[in-house]
Amino acid sequence: MNSRLLGSGTVLAVLALMSALPAPAQASSEVTARPLPLGAAGLTETRTTRTLQPGVTLTRIVRGADAPAMAWTVEMSIPGGAGSPDPDAPPTALKDRVSADALTAALRAGGFDARAEEVVTPALADYAGGSLGWRVRVGTFASQDAATAERTRLRNAGYAGSALYTGWDGDPGDRGPWRIDVLTIDPHRFRGTLDASYGPDLEDRETTGDLARTAGATAGVNAGFFVLDPRAGAPGDPAGVGVYDGRLLSEPVNGRPSLVVGDTAADSRVTRLTWKGRAVGPDGSLPLDGVNRVPGLIRNCGGTADDAPTARPLHDATCTDPDELVAFTEDFGPSTPAGEGAEAVLDARHRVLSVRSPRGGPLPDGGSSVQATGAQATALTALAQVGHPLRVQGTLHDAKGRRVTPSPRTDVVNGGPELVRDGRPHVTVAADGMVKPNDPSFFYGWVHKRNPRTLAGVDAAGRTVLVTADGRATGSLGLSIPESAGVARALGLRDAINLDGGGSTTMVVDGAVINQPSDATGERPVGDALLILPDRSSAAH
Questions:
Q1: Most exposed among 26, 218, 360, 416, judged by the fewest C-beta atoms under 10 Å?
Q2: pLDDT score, position 541
């Protein structure tokens, strides 16, 4: 084990720091020792590294551990004011200045110490930045209890708001603290396996810890976005691409970035994937809409042209389509989703055993099915002939239109936005659906503010790097998305992607959770995880 003490020597804001950093050099055997571009200049930064297995190291980075406590406040939900462009819009964290000023005046008249603040966000690769809108806050408090007491007083007066720590705002001059854990896999010395796991089936959720312990993993982190709300699909189902052992079990959110990994970690990469599929019968074929998800519900959108409200990626939103064709494998779960429509049930040789309506039920051993809803139900019934084959065909393509054929040793997990490309900041919030023109409060909470984050990427030496940053706590502030890109570059990553974060952010080492998940209930069950497995071959001899 070794420790290192670092200091920062610049007062530039995070984006200026990102731009000023030189392109990553050939990495050493440890995590790159460049200070993290977080907070004010001169902060104390400690790094402690230990080897978990040959070719795998864990580095704990703590920056600003001696930072003084920051203030708490109450952030209000702002209704549309009389002069607002949309006075009937529901209350949100950000509004236009007219609405913010109107609420501030009303609060002051009621005896509250209110203020209106403009929120300005930096420019990113595909987003101009600038003013997001105005927020209204009440008071400055030394403790969470004091802020919560003021929130109760506000609620009793008919106002809505929440107590929050101002260190989560993302001010580049903050002094921390930050706590970040980094797993580095060197393919030249690594003899184990890097694997993605979703557990017993897709539709259920398991904690990263359970997935790691079941697999006997040395270490692991949570991976892609997934369905959480039953109204958005089957909880646990990947909300984007999912390839496991070379098998496509969840279609991409078309064009969004993903992390591709192989067993040896030698060919990990960040890539953008699209997909097209068809159900092919003896007398024709039909286009598929998806794989292993509830028909009609497209989490994170990015589906087909007839999806509403958009066929483009739209993060944390559920698009809909009443007329869909979705393929299922046994990996989905004990039963396929039940509902109106039709379902062609196939045996292990892809022959149609039956066409059932309504759809839903168990599949035969080694079997599969194709479900149809709306107008597609009639089309599927005509296509699927009992006793004849019905084959599901699909192809993945990269951003250049080249066909991608995963090997049995390949896994792909979904993510977004992209953070770093070719060693330079490349934060693609607009392309990946995090910019919602009529909802700046979403961008404010998801991109601009600090949250727990899980990041992944590849450095200049070809090493796979997995990162967790704790957040939503006074002991670790978390990262904004721009700060995440800055951290990825400072760690020497050539290409990097944001994975699922927030309460999902978890790192497990030797069966134990080593970070501090932010959910009040503890470790969150997730859709899938990236696992570092030991070298089984040596144990077998």
A1: 26
A2: 40
Of residues 486, 514, 394, 448, the one with CA closest to residue 93: 448
Both tokens assigned to 48: 């402690």
Strand partners, 48: 3, 60
Q: What pLDDT score was predicted for residue 81?
A: 61
Which two three-digit tokens encode residue 501? 């974060």
Contact yes or no for 223/526 (Cβ under 8 A): yes
The CA distance from 470 to 168, in Å, is 12
User: C-alpha distances in angstroms, 44 versus 106, 217, 435, 459?
Assistant: 43, 33, 35, 25
Cα–Cα distance measured from residue 475 to residue 45, given in angstroms and rounded to the nearest whole number: 14
* Whole-number Å distance between alpha carbons of 38 and 490: 10
**Spans of the chain below 50 pLDDT:** 1-29, 540-541
Which residue type occupies 101?
D
Query: For 446, which DSSP code?
Result: I
Which sign, positive or negative, has the C-alpha torsion 303, 304, 308, 312?
A: positive
Torsion of CA 107, 109, 112, 117, to 10 degrees: 50
The pLDDT of residue 275: 97
- Taking CA atoms, 259 is separated from 22, 102, 270, 412, 540, in Å, by 24, 46, 5, 6, 31
Which residue spans within 449-519 are E strands per DSSP? Answer: 453-459, 464-469, 493-498, 507-509, 512-513
- CA-to-CA dists, residue 516 to 189, 463, 467, angstroms: 30, 25, 13
Q: How far apart are CA 55 and CA 218, in angstroms?
A: 12
- Residue-level length of the chain: 541
Residue that has been written with the tokens 């039953």 in this structure = 230
What is the pLDDT at residue 19?
A: 42
Distance CA 434, CA 447 (A): 8
pLDDT at 156: 98
Give the separation between CA 366 and CA 350, rounded to whole angstroms: 9
Tokens of 56: 């795998």
> Residue 541 and residue 409: Cα distance in Å, rounded?
23
The torsion angles phi and psi of 28, rounded to 5 degrees, stand at -85, -170
In whole angstroms, how far apart are CA 372 and each of 342, 354, 379, 423?
A: 5, 14, 8, 44
Written as one string, the DSSP assignment of 388-431 is SB-EEEEEEE-TTS-EE---TTEEEEE---EEEETTEE---TTT
At position 457, the amino acid (one-letter code) is G
- Residue 3 has a pLDDT of 39
Phi, psi of 194 (to 5 degrees): -100, 120
Helix (H, G, I), strand (E, B) or coil at 380: helix
